[in-house]
Amino acid sequence: MAHYAFLDSENIVTHVIVGREEDEIVDGITDWEEYYGNVHGQQCLRTSYNTHNNEHIEGGTPFRGNYAGPGSEYREDLDAFIPPSPGSQYVLDETIMNWVLSE
Hints:
The chain is mainly beta. It has one domain (2-101). It is built from 1 helix and 9 strands. The chain has a 3-stranded antiparallel beta sheet. A hairpin with a 2-residue loop joins strand 4 and strand 5 (55-56). The longest helix is centred in the middle third of the chain and has 9 residues, at 32-40. It is globular and about 55 Å long. The protein starts with a strand and ends with a strand. 22% of the residues are buried. The mean pLDDT is 97.
């Protein structure tokens, strides 16, 4: 099963759904991001349930930094979902695509 995140106009995740695998073809549909985006009227991007802190928890290839959750931001320049900052004393570590305490 694949997961898909929906983005508002500021690239903030509004919700995530479980959908078709990206390689499934049903009724001629081959691009599920586009299909779900059109159905919901928002940009839609696939997200990996098994990716956290830019690592795949089962040893696979990490995908888009983190599993997207409501309130996460999609950073196009990093092709990653970034969780909300926990506070002003934190900085984004682009290696793990998550927030760490600034030194």
